[in-house]
Each structure stands twice: as C-alpha cells, then as structure tokens.
Design goal:
single chain; 287 residues; alpha/beta; Rossmann fold; eight-stranded mixed beta sheet; two-stranded antiparallel ribbon; 9 helices; 29% helix
Length: 287
C-alpha cells in the first residue's frame, strides 16, 4: 500500500456538504497532516458515527468504519487493541460525541487509549436541520428550543482534562496551517488525544458566521505551558469571550492503554495468531 498523498487519499466520491461548510477545511487539514506524516494508507483507520462530518467515510480512500450515531469511539478502541501499530482516528460531530457518545469520550480519556478524536463542533445538530446540541450557548433559539435553550453549554476541553486526557487541543476549520499541525501532533501523541474543532455551519447556524469566528477565535498565548494541567484548566474555563486555539495540554510521559497490557508487549494481537494452533480441544469442550 502506498504512502498517503493528497491525490490517493481522496476517494472518487465528492463531498456533498453545503458550500462554505467548515467540514471542507477540516478534511483538507486531515489530508495534509496524514501526507506530511508520511503514513501508509493501509496503516490509517478512521471511524465515523452519523452526522454531516461523518459522511467523510465516503470521501477518503483509507480504511474506514461508518458506524452508529455517537458511537465512533468503541470501534476505534477495538481496532487499536487488535493492532496497536495502526494510527486510528475517531471522527464525530459535537452532537454525537458530546451528546450520545460522551461516556465513550470519558472512558477513552481515562484509559489513555492511543486514539485520536477529531470533533467537528458547530454548536448544532446540523444533519437533522439545526437543533440545539450540547455545545449550543444558553438562550439560543433553535427548532428544539424556540423560547431559548435552558441548559448551560457543555465544555469539552474542561471535561476531557478532568477525565485525565493526556492531549487536549482546540482548532479552527478556517485556520488551515495551525489545524494541520494540531492534527499531526494529536496523531503522533502517545495516548488519547482530543481535538475540538470549531467550524461554521453556514446553513443552520447563521449567528456564528465567519465574521463571528474572526472576532472571537485567537491563538493561545506563546507563553502557554502545555505541560501544566492547572494552566490548561484555567484557560479552558475562562468566561465566554475569546475562543483560544492550540494545544492546551499534553502529557508525553503517561503510558498508553495498550502499553500497560503484558499480552501486547511482544507484538499486536493480530500477529500473535498461529494458523497451526490446534483449537479442537476448545471446540470439543464447548460442543
């Protein structure tokens, strides 16, 4: 299988997203990150749930799983445990990952499973035409909250940090250069990596248009120490205002989940199977 290039990573199926959707910028950054890391196409597996961004399973020519809404993480962990030599990436939207799939995020972070989680965050359930999602700001009027959203918005960065995630970052779909570098760092990180990616939904979230993001998105300070968990918590919980992009926190010393399993120390599970192994006693026992 050849190394990934911008040409061979694209499938013949063209994206069907709305013109101007942030998904285009995120997919472009992911393509570039995979190419610059010089990964073989056969060594990258992506797992998708259900949503606008999850249709990306059709648009990339690497191995991919198109699963259930909010359930992109369990297959990702399963693939990694079976063959930890692969680079495994979970892709989901803010609705699926921070709503239905939140428990999977929490326990993947807690266990430090060596997977990369890319979350397309546009503050809406956009595939189903713009209902409020977990990250929708309080008071927002949508189809499901016509009098204004009652709940406080979910803070994914603070939650991931509290769940012991060893890599927590935020990017912006229209900042190609920074987002590409963040994704590269997340993929090569030793352990669980969450990248929350801000993006515009030009069809169902007109309050957060490109001008809004231009006025509110800002890079983390050059003085930010990504090895300092307390500093990361402080920035992640700042009152509403600027949305800071960059690597909030990275622990490069904590072992990944599979590294703590003796059964995987010698080699991946998929390479431990021996065709000549006699399983007839097991069959006889359970027959």
């Amino acid at each position: 299988m050849p190394k990934i290039t911008k040409q061979n990573i694209k499938s013949p199926i063209k994206p069907t997203w709305c013109a101007g959707c942030g998904n285009f910028g995120i997919l472009r950054a992911l393509y570039a990150a995979l190419e610059e890391l010089e990964l073989n196409r056969a060594d990258v597996v992506t797992s998708y749930g259900v949503g606008c961004c999850d249709n990306g399973a059709d648009f990339s020519a690497n191995y991919a799983i198109h699963g259930l809404h909010g359930r992109s993480v369990p297959p990702t962990i399963g693939v990694k445990l079976a063959n930890h030599e692969l680079k495994v990436i979970s892709v989901s939207g803010d609705g699926g990952q921070y709503g239905e799939g939140l428990n999977h995020l929490m326990f993947a972070a807690r266990g430090n499973h060596n997977i990369t989680m890319l979350v397309h965050n546009n503050n809406r359930y956009s595939l189903t035409t713009g209902q409020a999602s977990p990250t929708t700001p309080k008071g927002t009027k949508t189809k499901t909250t016509p009098e204004g959203l009652i709940e406080e918005p979910f803070n994914p960065l603070h939650t991931a940090l509290s769940a012991h995630a060893s890599f927590v970052a935020r990017g912006y779909a229209n900042d190609f250069k920074q987002l590409k570098e963040i994704i590269k760092s997340a993929i090569t990180h030793r352990g669980f990596a969450l990248v929350d990616i801000l993006q515009a939904c030009v069809t169902f979230n007109k309050d957060y248009d490109f001008k809004w993001y231009k006025d509110h998105v800002e890079h983390l300070s050059e003085d930010h120490d990504s090895s300092d968990w307390n500093q990361a918590i402080e920035v992640a919980t700042k009152p509403a205002g600027k949305l800071f992009t960059g690597v909030y926190y990275q622990d490069e010393d904590r072992p990944a989940y599979h590294e703590s399993l003796d059964v995987l120390n010698e080699k991946p599970l998929v390479k431990q199977w021996q065709a000549e192994r006699d399983i007839s006693p097991v069959i006889k026992h359970y027959a």
